[in-house]
Amino acid sequence: MIRKLVAGFGLACLAGLVWGSIERRCPTVTGVSIKGRAGAPRLRVLQVADAHLWPSQRWEVDFIASAADIPYSLCVNTGDNFSDGGAMGVLRKAFGPLLSGPGVFTFGSNDYFGPHFKNPFRYFFGTSTNDDRPDIPDLPHQQLADFFTQGGWADVRNRSVDLQVESLPSRNRASEQVTVSVMGVDDPHIGRDKLPQPPSGWDDAVLRIGVAHAPYRRVLDAFTETGADLIICGHTHGGQVRLPFIGALVNNSDIPLRYASGLHDWYFAGRRAKLFVSKGMGTSKTAPLRFWCRPEIAFIDIVPDA
What we know:
This is Calcineurin-like phosphoesterase domain-containing protein. It comes from Winkia neuii BV029A5. The protein has helices at about 1-25, 60-65, 90-95, 110, 140-150, 215-225; strands spanning about 30-40, 45-50, 75, 105, 155, 160-165, 175-185, 205-210, 230-235, 240-245, 245-250, 260-270, 270-275, 295-305. Helix 2 runs parallel beside helix 3. The radius of gyration is 19 Å and the shape is globular. It starts with a helix and ends with a strand. By secondary structure, the protein is α/β, with parallel strands linked by helices. The strands form 3 sheets. It has a 6-stranded mixed sheet, covered by helices on one side. The protein has a 6-stranded mixed sheet with strand order 6-7-8-9-13-12. Strands 10-11 form a two-stranded antiparallel ribbon. It has one domain: Purple Acid Phosphatase, chain A, domain 2, CATH 3.60.21. Helix content is about 20%, strand content about 25%. Strand 2, helix 2 and strand 3 (about 75) form a beta-alpha-beta unit.
């Protein structure tokens, strides 16, 4: 009897690993909507998070590039683009088509430091630490930043910017150029975040966005207190391994597990912001599987508040 139980458990684990390897290659398009300010036009924000690309990830390259075929007003890249130092070529192919429109980017730890194996059970006892990272970044992060900025995207690592973007036409309104303001920070997960001053157009912008790679409380609170309408993050991979009826088991951050992915309200200092945390597109090369947590790109629609 015990042998049968052990054999059954082993087969279940093997089946889970096989499915997890398959599911990580089954990307989805997620769509959510929030109410905009009264009188504001319709906007759409595309988020690409946690690509974790390595040279053989052709399926992911094609999927990210295909997002350029869907109309949107602004692209937000929340970092962790690399899973291999040799992935710059495929990164250019994945994101090149998206550079034709307005965009902003920040970085995660895996834009600076290459991935390495970690005991997965350590995530149940807190966030991963920097103790075993090299002192000097070993990924071509400056080359990646140059690629994005030369393509026209704004670097919002501890910076803020006002952008002119095009709204989407609606039933009673044509598309138009409007101002969207963005405040961003570098990766809070490795302590690189420093909140910038809001851009000059912050108070009058039709949409105010806070951008960070990792959704840490101190950053979400600061964006909310400053008056952000929408905060966009990645990093968590939605838990990467989820269980039916339970959800994410870990999120490698200091926020409650229920915020590991999706659209939520975040409250601080008597204010409320909408928080969207993406499940992301990829996985680290050292843990190439997902379970009950398919990769995604996300479109966030900001619809006029009638």
